[in-house]
Write a structure and sequence with these properties.
heterodimer; A: mainly beta; Immunoglobulin-like; five-stranded antiparallel sheet; 0% helix; 56% strand; B: four-stranded antiparallel sheet; globular
């Protein structure tokens, strides 16, 4: 069964304190791993897509990496506006749905 | 502006009163999908549509119906809502190819069934 597990559930950082969020997945033949950001009461906002092990993508203070079993979202020198829930998802085998993890809620204080 | 819109954004209703949540996208996307988000359970797919007149069940379809008569619209219908359908609902769309491409999400509809 396709499954996505994110850790930690919640993370509190001081402004400027870099860290990483983890997403481990089990899917037969990965066809896409996605990172989204979700602010309270809003829809998920697309960040990155990764398709193969070794792939990396960056956007401002965020960098996503992918191995054969997990993905990391590295946050470098975070700011309070980076506070949000970060969701990881993989495409299911049939290519008809995203299977989401439960998310990591990040709080960055100044 | 490229976007997915949903209406209403908030709805409080009573058990058994039929309702429809509309979803519309202006990006000419072939694939559309409905998800519900519940605390501790995350986002789960209700129904999806690969193209006009092509719909199928997701992981949690019980109590819901959908239709796809036009490419841009994908309404979610609750024929007889029950309290366990109280949730936050999201519509999403992506270019052709199903869920292999990034999905664009709407702003959400918060539904309360009393």
């Amino acid at each position: 069964e396709d499954q996505v597990t994110q850790s930690p559930e919640a993370l509190r950082l001081q402004e400027g304190e870099s860290s990483s969020l983890n997403c481990s997945y089990t899917v037969s033949g990965l066809r896409g791993l996605f990172w989204y950001r979700q602010d309270p009461g809003k829809g998920p906002e697309f960040l990155f897509t990764l398709y193969s092990a070794g792939e990396e993508k960056e956007k401002e203070r965020l960098k996503a990496t992918l191995t054969k079993k997990e993905s990391f979202l590295h946050i470098t020198a975070p700011k309070p506006e980076d506070s949000a829930t970060y969701l990881c998802a993989v495409t299911n085998q049939a290519g008809t749905a995203l299977i989401f993890g439960k998310g990591t809620t990040l709080s960055v204080s100044s | 502006e490229a976007q997915v819109t949903q209406n209403p954004r908030y709805l409080i209703t009573v058990t058994g009163k039929k309702l429809t949540v509309t979803c519309s996208q202006n990006m000419n996307h072939e694939y559309m999908s409905w998800y519900r988000q519940d605390p501790g359970l995350g986002l789960r797919q209700i129904y999806y549509s690969m193209n006009v007149e092509v719909t199928d069940k997701g992981d949690v379809p019980e109590g819901y119906k959908v239709s796809r008569k036009e490419k841009r619209n994908f309404p979610l219908i609750l024929e007889s809502p029950s309290p366990n359908q109280t949730s936050l609902y999201f519509c999403a769309s992506s270019p052709g190819g199903g869920s292999y491409n990034e999905q664009f999400f709407g702003p959400g509809t918060r539904l309360t069934v009393l």
